[in-house]
Fold this protein.
Amino acid sequence: MTAPAEQARLTLNTGATIPQVGLGVFKIDDDAECERVVLDALELGYRHIDTAMIYRNEAAVGRALAKSGIPREELFVTTKVWNSDQGATETPAALATSLELLGLDYVDLYLIHWPAPTRGRYVETWLALEELAAKGLSKAIGVSNFEPEHLEAILEAGNVVPAINQVELHPAFQQRTVRAFGEQRGILTEAWGPLGQGKYELAELPGLNELAQKHGKTIQQIVLRWHIQEGVIVFPKSVRKERLAENLAVFDFALDAEDMAVMEAMDSGKRVGTHPDDGNW
Ligand code: NAD
């Protein structure tokens, strides 16, 4: 395996660091393909993998991690508890299953995947995550798809401030309110769907093609670089090795203040995914 590429790392409120660019493996359903993609990514220098119980590929991720031979402490592995596994007894069992599938003794980050407010169990689930972290089964804990009101509820009931809130975030949906709430409380933001999940044409965003030409980069690299300079963590998904390489090659240029203003103006407040209050599956 080659040495990790030069990459930025951010510091979590636990003191641990997280590579700012990782690989997301949502919808890489085929086991063999998932294993191959994770191995390709690790070979290219990725050290951060974002999976979830519901992606049904933790075993394939785990096989790739083991085959890579990369020391455990160099890897940053995230998984998430699914809605139906929320609860004081269900969540510890779910993490035990995830760890077994991943072939790991601990994950670096365990997230509540969705608040699922109509289920009414996310606060109880947060308290379970606090205990799992105390036992060392997850080095850090956090949430995903939490709006400020959901964060308020766990901050009120719990003793640990989430390290991360992972939310939908891309140029058309920049999440300024959720990010500001997190910033004030030491919660870092991770972007899911950083490329809009391919659900809209990035090329049609005003000014993006021009920025790509100016910097001699692809529009996807400009978008990822913007996330990085905004202090957001990204893990774009691709199964193609050349795109994995492209998505990591975002540390050799910088957007200036004018470029960042062009990016900021792309925010139309339009989600491509589900509103957190509606993700109660
Ligand atoms: P994404 O924005 O990463 O988009 C992926 C799409 O972009 C794929 O179709 C891929 O072919 C294309 N793409 C990737 N790199 C490209 C490149 N360089 N050039 C052109 N096209 C490129 O969307 P995503 O996979 O949904 O999000 C990333 C990760 O976020 C997921 O894999 C998963 O780990 C996580 N996620 C979390 C949640 C959550 O609820 N917490 C929801 C969705 C995704």
